Amino acid sequence: MAGGARHGSCHCGGVTFAAEAPLGDVIACHCSQCRRTSGHVWAGSMVARAQFRLLAAAPLRWFRSSPRVDRGFCQDCGASLFWQPVDGAEICVAAGALDAPTGLTLAEHWHREDAGDYYSPEGPPPPPAGARPERLSCACLCGACAFDLPGPAGAITACHCTQCRKLSGHYSASFDADESRLVWRRRAALKEYATPGGGCRGFCSDCGSSLWFRSAAGEFSVEAGSVTGPTGGRLAEHIFVASRGDYYRIDDGLPQSGRW
Ligand SMILES: [Zn+2]
Ligand SMILES: [Zn+2]
Ligand SMILES: [Zn+2]
Fold first, then answer.
1. Tell me: the pLDDT tens digits for 73-82?
2. Does domain 131-243 have CATH number 3.30.470.20?
3. Domain 5-110 belongs to what topology?
4. Ligand 3 centroid to residue 164 C-alpha, Å
5. On the chain, which terminus has fewer CB atoms closer than 10 Å, C or N?
């Protein structure tokens, strides 16, 4: 896809934007900050600030995640949308937020050394780690939300559904947990977003980090990227791959299902 504007939005539609070509190749970032905000891995495409326009921005909120970087998210649905150097001439827009087809290609992995223990940036996940933590500590990026739960994480599921892609900025990875065994340490900024299917997603309203999902049937799962340190888990499968973004391939050899 050559010229023309790409449009994108958060999941609830409160934030919409347009980016004029050229958009850069998609970069997947495995740094701990991107992993915490997205809940797994964040991916984005760089565009000149002059080529970028916010069309609707009422719920857009910025969080200064480091002295020279702001991250933009939707305060209504928690979608991780933008990464922007404070004085920069460019803005990185979440690949998962872009309307299909993006016509883009994931071409680079940044901070591979900071990838979680449960997946590899490319190829099959590493063998099950020696670490089998009995407790997992989870937190958002700003620290306003934090909870503990029994570990290890075990089987981790990657979900490529449109909802997960819009909210995370790329796609999600989470593991089942017993909600009654969560011990909250801080939750003042916790916000819940009711999803169209009757489920609910928990995120931090101060920094936008994705934390957990509760289905309409009450099944509860925790975002793997929220775990501090080893998860003791391993990516096991990909679901809803029929909704996968057009800018990446799944190359880790794990089972895939069109729905679940
Ligand atoms: Zn939203
Ligand atoms: Zn936070
Ligand atoms: Zn999903």
1. 999 999 999 9
2. no
3. 2.170.150
4. 4
5. C
